[in-house]
Amino acid sequence: MSLITSYTSSQIRTLTTYQIASFTTADFKLLTTLQIAAMTSAQVSAIETRDILVLSSSQIGAFDATEFSDGILTYDKLSLMAASQIKGLSTAQISAFTTSHIAELTTKDIAALSTAQLNSFQTAVIATLSTTQTRALTTAQLAGLSTAQVSSLSTDSINALTTRQIVALTTSQLTSMSTDQVVALSTAQFAALKSAQIAALTSEQLNNLASDDLQALTIAQVRALTTAQISNLADTQVALMETRDIAALTSK
Question: What is the 3 state secondary structure string of 116-128?
Answer without folding.
Answer: HHHHHCCHHHHCC
